[in-house]
Design goal:
Elements: E1 11-12, E2 16-20, H1 26-33, H2 51-66, E3 70-76, E4 82-92, E5 97-104, H3 113-128, E6 133-139, H4 143-151, E7 155-166, E8 169-179
Parallel strand pairs: 5-6
Antiparallel strand pairs: 1-2, 2-3, 3-4, 4-5, 6-8, 7-8
Helix pairs in contact: 1-2
This protein binds coenzyme A.
């Protein structure tokens, strides 16, 4: 059976624009994913080669063509700067389940951007796909990511012991889940005064 394509959408929130990646994003994406600080709780080492960025962008297009997920670049509306990305990976239409992931530049952490972008992507996905469950996993030390998931309404469902080994460092992960009937779009942050 021919898989259904899943074209990546463009979405706008109060402060952000989410859009498909293009080749010109490779430089910014490499800068982000090669930062040891940004990737300190990631399930893989920071990138060391620029072609990893090119491969990521190619994979975004393949995901859209094959309907296996959606990865969107996130720009700040105020200045058009690329600040990171968020994604729904591994879309399984039989189980109606997908996994959420995201990564942002440390310069912009703490402004609610990750939550705002994920809420827009989840809203789109619950509307557009017959989605029932969204899953997310995070390093148990990643307090900011735990907080993002909880602000989005995800529930902690368990702990995967010694789930990842990155450069010899062993870490546990939390599993979080959000079921369609629990989904409530978080309210947008109040405009800055
Ligand atoms: C995790 C990440 C996406 C959060 O992005 P962000 O834009 O800062 O997220 P938000 O501002 O929406 O929310 C972060 C929340 O964590 C809280 N937080 C951050 N660091 C914290 C800490 N050390 N202790 C307690 N709370 C903390 C913030 O206060 C905020 O909660 P609040 O709104 O209740 O105040 C960002 O840090 C990131 O990209 N990290 C690197 C990649 C990564 O780890 N991705 C997740 C992999 S599972």
């Amino acid at each position: 059976m021919q898989a259904m394509s899943l074209p990546a959408p463009s979405l706008q929130t109060g402060r952000l624009r989410l859009r498909p990646f293009d080749d010109d994003d490779a430089t910014d994406l490499f800068a982000l994913q090669s930062s040891a600080h940004v990737l300190r709780y990631w399930d893989a080492p920071p990138w060391s080669e620029r072609r990893q960025a090119d491969r990521f962008i190619t994979a975004c297009r393949q995901m859209a063509e094959q309907g296996t997920g959606v990865r969107l670049a996130v720009d700040r509306l105020a200045d058009g700067a690329f600040i990171g990305w968020c994604a729904l990976n591994g879309w399984n239409p039989d189980h109606r389940r997908v996994s959420l992931g995201y990564c942002y530049d440390d310069d912009v952490w703490g402004h609610g951007y990750a939550t705002e972008a994920a809420a827009a992507l989840l809203g789109w996905a619950f509307d557009r796909l017959e989605l029932n469950r969204v899953q997310a996993e995070t390093d148990t030390r990643n307090v900011a990511s735990v907080r993002v998931l909880e602000k989005l309404g995800f529930l902690r469902e368990g702990r995967l012991r010694e789930d990842c080994v990155v450069n010899g460092e062993v870490s546990d992960s939390f599993v979080y889940g959000l079921i369609r009937r629990e989904w409530r779009p978080p309210s947008e942050p109040a405009p800055a005064r």
